[in-house]
Amino acid sequence: QVQLVESGGGLVQPGGSLRLSCAASGFTFSNYAMRWYRQAPGKERELVATITIGGDTKIFPDSVKGRFSISRDNAKNTAYLQMHSLKVEDTAVYYCMALGLDSWGQGTQVTVSS
Which of 13, 38, 69, 113 could bridge to 92 as Cys pair (CB 3.0-4.6 Å)? Predict the structure, then answer.
């Protein structure tokens, strides 16, 4: 049974940083590229980061490029999303997923507010 558990969200001021974690189980983590998505109230889910199986390729949309980074630890079956210079518009529920597996975790809320 595929399970993804996101954590690390919270309330942060504009300009602050957060590190999200995605603990994976129920599948061979090291065989899948991983993605982070976010969904703000009233908006569609948005892809914010992709990392390949070996971690050598990372892709970001312009909205977060230069501020977000993605990494993975295949030994710990965990993916991470490091977010810097957070903006109010980054407020959303953040989700991780394994590319090719139709399974989502519960997400973790990130709120950027002064």
Answer: 38
- pLDDT at residue 112 is higher than 90: yes
How far from 73 is each of 43, 45, 107, CA to CA, in Å? 31, 25, 19
For the record, the structure tokens of 67 come out as 């501020």
* DSSP letter string, 66-98: TTEEEEEETTTTEEEEEE-S--GGG-EEEEEEE
Residues 33/52, Cβ–Cβ less than 8 Å? yes
Q: Is 29 helix (H, G, I), strand (E, B) or coil?
A: helix
Alpha-carbon span 3 to 62, nearest angstrom? 29
> In 3D, which of 11, 34, 33, 32 has the Cα closest to residue 21?
34
Return the higher-pLDDT residue of 55 and 19: 19
Q: Exposure string (b/e) for 99-114, b if CB count within 10 Å is 16 or more?
A: eeeeeebebbebebee
